[in-house]
Automatic annotation (TrEMBL):
Entry-linked PROSITE patterns: HTH_DEOR_2 (PS51000)
UniProt-recorded name of the protein: DeoR faimly transcriptional regulator
GO molecular function: DNA-binding transcription factor activity
Keyword Transcription in annotation: yes
Top-level taxonomic group: Bacteria
Signal peptide bounds: none
Species this protein is from: Brachybacterium phenoliresistens
Start and end residues of each HTH deoR-type domain: 3-58
Pfam families given in the database record: DeoRC, HTH_DeoR
Record key words, sorted: Transcription, Transcription regulation
């Protein structure tokens, strides 16, 4: 079978049958495991599926890639990133989640001078790239597996590294957020990591533009310990904001230019 046809069939199988392992695919197509790994890497780069340990899974229904999300609600994300930057004090240890909105905070931090003396741990490859040469920032990567769709670290290696660190502030992202359930993500591996990040941080802030409020595209949730802060833009529905306030969440609304 030609390589392109094989990759198309792998993507079809993942979409129809769910998770597939390298070994299973290798036997099915009668090729070496290394060939299957190259196929999976190619499909992940094309956004056809997501890599896992030893195999692949289809992207969750409705899940977009980081590149797609970076163009959505961009003015609001830039405003939230700028607001968050003003809260960070010199010398603090800051934890940055993956995602497009937290990536805008990293863009703001790239302007920090030597006097900032910040210690930044970043899960997103976008944040790491933006901060890798910034003087005044000690940059740490927790390592782990890279989740292709979000371009961020995830998994037991990431969790083990974070469990051995504490932070003054954590800035989290989310695919959706509700007052009742917390942060909505595509799978339990992501929600477990969010809860760990919150547990290791003295202050927890969720940066979520107004389109994320009340949005529940998936069925996995991270419950954050109170108090935590929700930062959103002035397009948010006041009724949604009141639900968060009643649940004990501090709400900050950022006015857009």
């Amino acid at each position: 079978m030609p390589a392109r046809a094989r990759r198309e069939e792998i993507a079809r199988l993942a979409a129809s049958s769910g998770p597939a392992s390298v070994e299973e695919l290798s036997r099915r197509f009668e090729v070496t495991p290394s060939t299957i790994r190259r196929d999976l890497s190619r499909l992940a780069e094309e956004g056809a599926l997501a890599r896992t340990y030893g195999g692949a899974i289809p992207l969750a229904a409705g899940e977009s890639t980081l590149r797609e999300r970076e163009s959505e609600a961009h003015p609001a994300k830039r405003a939230l990133g700028a607001w968050a930057r003003r809260q960070i004090r010199p010398g603090e240890h800051v934890l940055l989640d993956g995602g497009s909105t937290v990536g805008e905070l990293a863009r703001e931090l790239a302007g920090a001078g030597p006097e900032a003396a910040l210690h930044v741990t970043a899960l997103g490859l976008n944040a790491l790239h933006r901060l890798e040469e910034v003087e005044g920032i000690e940059l740490v990567s927790p390592g782990g597996a890279v989740r292709r769709s979000s371009q961020s670290f995830i998994g037991p290696i990431t969790e083990a590294a974070l469990s051995r660190m504490t932070f003054d502030r954590a800035y989290l992202s989310s695919d959706g957020v509700t007052a009742e359930h917390g942060l909505c993500e595509a799978g339990p591996e992501q929600t477990r990591l969010k809860e760990l990040m919150a547990a290791q941080s003295a202050e927890v802030t969720v940066l979520a533009d107004s389109t994320k409020l009340g949005h529940r595209p998936f069925h996995s949730w991270a419950r954050l310990p109170l108090p935590w802060t929700l930062v959103t833009d002035d397009g948010a529905d006041p009724r949604q904001l009141e639900l968060f306030r009643r649940s004990g969440v501090e709400v900050q609304v950022v006015d857009l230019p």
